[in-house]
Write a structure and sequence with these properties.
By secondary structure, the chain is α+β, with helices and mostly antiparallel strands. It folds into two domains: 228 residues, Nucleotidyltransferase, domain 5; 80 residues, General secretion pathway protein M, EpsM (Gyrase A, domain 2, 2-Layer Sandwich), CATH 3.30.1360. 36% of the residues lie in helices and 23% in strands. It contains eight helices and 16 strands. The strands form four sheets. A five-stranded mixed beta sheet has the order 10-9-8-11-12, with no helix packed on it. Strands 3-2-1-4 form a four-stranded mixed beta sheet, covered by helices on one side. A four-stranded antiparallel beta sheet has the order 13-14-16-15, with helices on one face. Helix 5 runs parallel beside helix 6 and helix 6 crosses helix 7. The longest helix is centred in the middle third of the chain and has 56 residues.
Length: 401
């Protein structure tokens, strides 16, 4: 069993802190001992509304979301301003609901944070009074009165309104056999007669602090805890863990988003570059081998054609590649020459091209004939509007054996 440290929020309380250890009696304590104990902070009875409602069968998380709307008509403030804590009543059915203002919850948690402590549970004060079937329990302090009407029912009020609210409670539910009044004011008679209260009242003066009585009655597994939902211990832990890392993580997230955007842009740029390179390869292939009508894979087809040319070159001595190398410089040096068609036939080259005029064709022929062993044959030369369409055949001269 874990040690429990109890701390009252109310400044008028008679004892602010006490410790219930695994063994031994209760004793006064300080918040310095919170590090080694489970901190329980009762919620002032004047600040919490306790209700009972029917609850359909559903998961706890679903019930926490649904219950506030089931009790909305019993609340004086909008749901957006209120925090609802829920606990299923397994014995009598339905659900117990504790309602407190979100503003007050945040003030209490901030107050505790200033004291460098974090609560593990915040049960309502009225439900920490003794409960005996057939008996209502009243705790009367100078600044407030707490009343427990049942396992999950009760209220807190100003002492001046206690008699009126007890009388009204008797008209709204079955009357108990008696009312037990625990007096921390020293003003009650042993059997006080309260206006509108029709059941016997038994009062007894108290000297032990009320917080000690609450600590004795507290049962962790049978308590309504307001630390749920947005104020749950797990959510508080996550928030406390997340807060110092929030800015670095946000910066890291922003950097990752920017890096991802940059990578996507770079990938698209590279894809575009690859597409352009592939288009250039296809254009080069078509320019080099215009007789090919269908291009499936320009690189593979180019490699296959070149391998074929090499094989032919090996079979034909100097061959096509040597011939192509010899005439390439001449064609390149001829101004405005546009190559239209290039075809190999054994060791000969069949070439179609455009030049500016017949004089350019004549000069080209002279240059080609200067290449040792090269035979040049002009097949045709047709003058067009702005140029001359030429067809020549190049080959090696054959020597008589």
């Amino acid at each position: 069993m874990t040690a429990h440290l109890f701390y009252r929020l109310a400044p008028e309380s008679d004892s602010a802190c006490c410790l219930r250890e695994m063994e031994g009696p209760l004793r006064a304590a300080t918040l310095d001992e919170a590090a080694s104990a489970r901190l329980v902070v009762p919620v002032p009875g004047l600040e919490v509304l306790l209700l009972k409602t029917q609850a359909p069968k559903m998961s706890r998380r679903q019930m926490e979301k649904a219950i506030p709307f089931l009790v909305e008509d019993q609340l004086a403030a909008p749901l957006s301003e209120l925090h609802c804590a829920v606990r299923r009543d397994k014995e009598q059915g339905g659900a117990a609901v504790g309602v407190a203002a979100k503003r007050r919850m945040e003030q209490w948690l901030a107050q505790l944070a200033e004291l460098s402590v974090q609560p593990a549970a915040m049960p309502p004060e009225p439900l920490l009074l003794p409960w005996v079937p057939g008996t209502w329990t009243v705790a009367l302090e100078p600044h407030q009165a707490l009343v427990r009407l049942g396992p999950w029912e009760g209220f807190g009020c100003d002492p001046e309104n206690l008699e009126f609210l007890l009388a009204r409670a008797l008209t709204e539910r079955p009357a108990p056999q008696r009312i037990r009044a625990l007096d921390w004011t020293g003003t009650l008679e042993p059997a006080p007669r309260w206006s509108g209260v029709t059941v016997p009242v038994e009062a007894s003066p108290q000297s032990e602090p009320l917080l000690h009585l609450m600590a004795t009655e507290y049962q962790r597994d049978h308590a309504l805890d307001l630390l749920q939902g947005d104020y749950g211990v797990r959510e508080q832990w996550i928030e406390s863990w997340w807060k110092p890392f929030r800015l670095p993580l946000l910066l890291l997230t922003a950097w990752l988003i920017l890096r991802l955007g940059w990578d996507v842009m770079e990938l698209r740029r590279l894809e575009s570059l690859v597409e352009r390179r592939e288009a250039q390869v296809v254009a080069l292939f078509k320019e080099s081998f215009p007789e090919v009508q269908k291009v499936v894979s320009a690189q593979s087809q180019m490699r296959s054609r070149l391998d074929n040319l090499r094989q032919r070159a090996k079979k034909g001595g100097a061959g096509f590649l040597e011939l192509l190398s010899a005439v390439g410089g001449v064609f390149k040096g001829t101004p405005n020459l546009t190559l239209l068609h290039l075809n190999q036939q054994e060791n000969d080259l069949d070439v179609q091209f455009l030049v500016d005029n017949l004089e350019a064709l004549s000069q080209l022929k002279e240059q080609l004939q200067k290449i040792p062993g090269l035979e040049v044959e002009i097949r045709s030369a047709a003058t067009q509007k702005d140029n001359v369409l030429c067809h020549i055949k190049l080959g090696r001269k054959h020597h008589a054996g």
